[in-house]
Amino acid sequence: MASQGPYGRQGYQANPQGYGGAYGGGGGAPPQGGSSYTSPPYGQGYGGATSYSAPAPQAGTYGVGGGDMGYGGESAGDYQNDKSSNDKTKGGKKSIALQALNQNVLIWAGFFSASLLIYSLLSGGDFSFLMTYGAMSRMFGFGILNVKTFKSQRATGVSVKSLQLYVLVFFFRLTSIFRHEGYLPYDKSGDWLYHFIEGMSLLFTSAALYGCMVPFKGTYQSDMDQFGEFNVPPGFGACYLAGPIMLVAVFIHPNLNADFLSDVAWTYAMYLESTALIPQLYMFQKQASGVVELLTAHFVAALGFGRLMEFLFWVYSYHELASSTGSRLPGYLALFSQFVQLVLMVDFFWYYYKAVRSATPLVLPTHGGLGIV
Questions:
Q1: 223-260 pLDDT, tens per residue?
Q2: Angle (nearest 5°) at CA 314 between 176 and 183
């Protein structure tokens, strides 16, 4: 708004009586060269009442002050500074997200590169390398979990029950493959590498379990890790999976080693691994926010990927898992158990893919998203 004119700051001072003064004694002379009649100012009658003029706007209001000030006294410079600050904030967030995305890519790129190297050196192109590949993925997952736990010095979001079950898985599998060769990969990786990978997986799992239960126990979310907490001492909910599965393995197992204890130990590890992630997935669902730390998500995804590799192997080889009587029921049961685990993880894989793609925390639905609660 211009500063000249009757309603402007300068116009009010030059002509305080408004338009033309009053008619008939208002105290103002008629303008020269014009009609003797002028309209009375707003608020003034024909009897000479005091005229009304709008008060001068204060400095700092809209449109006053030579265009330097904005509405409410905010200068144009302040607005530009705020805009620049917002742009920098957005740019910083994009930069952090890009760094996280690059880190995710590097983590998996390193794993796949090592896998290709080992495949070229030790597999001989044999299909059974998928067993070794699955074992490598599990070891990779537990390595990530140890980095997450000991670097952050926190055990948040990690299910101790799943770790307990995986310790049993690796222990029983090792007791079988160190004594016999019936369940080893056929290629060179079955000579020593597969044993080494399974041994390192047991070591990593035990280290993660130790970290959650001893030095970082104060950060362990026992109130979230509630799978199986029914008529058992606190923390022993995993026995509802470990006990019944042992009975199944005793009665339904293949006979590749021709040794009862060795065959049962390997079968128990196979069946138990298919359920070992259930407490972890259950814990994800119990979190009110549904947010999963990305390194924890990498850990679970690596275990799921390893199970997928083994499932692909056994799809073509399940007929070898026959019992001493020739029944293929152990092979069918092994396929079924692995398939169920993959089905339970379908939603997780989808949300994990979205999180890695956008470099944001993984957010799971809080009610029944994985079909286990």
A1: 999 999 988 898 899 999 999 999 999 999 999 999 99
A2: 20
